[in-house]
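Example 3.2
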Amino acid sequence: MTTTSAQPVLAPATAKAATRTGTVRRKQGFQHGGWFVAPFLALFGLFVIWPVVRGLYLSFTDANISGEGASFIGLDNYREALKDDLLWDSLGHSAYFTLLVVPCITLMAFLLAMLAHHIERGKWLWRLCFFMPFLLPSTVAGNLWEWLFNPTAGMINHVFGLNTAWLADSSYAMLTVVVCTLWWTVGFSFLLYLAALQGIPSHLYEAAKLDGANAWHRMVHITLPMLRNITGLVITLQVLASLQVFDQAVVMFDFEPGPEGATRTYVQFTLEEGFTAYRVGYASAASIIFFVIIASVALARMWLLRNREEGAR
């Protein structure tokens, strides 16, 4: 003889009462939780939302740095920006810097993480050495590498027996900023890779060893696929950060755009227009254009990630 268990069926009145009770509890929870979120929302609105809205408004005016006498000029700032050769040169410098930094820093971070993960003796020391430069302020890192690349007193020319004017030659100026950035910021991506490596189950490697897979096969068929998501995250973060390069470039070249403007990045161009030429309206328009570029890169990354996840299902 078989028995069946019947689910209790609530009466319509009871179901409506339960629904009302759940709604009331959610509203109460939202009201109580809102007090905890309110300080963050207030600061976010004051220091993020309001500057963006204000900058968008100023981009349609001819405002100067004093903020007085601004008049509405429509899209004139945007039309001028799209025809400004200096703006496009600055954007090209930022893109060139990004193309150099992102692949190098991704590969370096992966190799350093593999070394720190598999080394047996002094593991904590290696991890500390790889991550410590990231803790330095940008001014310290920039001044350090400015001294290292000094043509007369710098260590690089002295050690390698060179006589290259690294900081005075437009062919090498951006490369010096790239080297400084790689040394200074690789620690963050290294930490992400190291955490991801520690999260890979060890039984996968043990099973591969039993099947006769060597170290190369284990890395290609286990490690790299398991690190695919973290690699995408590292690349995205580095692209967004590299496009906004500013600190180390201006510190290494004493707040100048480098020889023949070779290290003038887009952010530096915007600041020069706003605080040197006093054209706040035009600088705001350039900032909005840059914001659209950065947002497009982030949205493209999200779209690619979503499509890949849907394709894997």
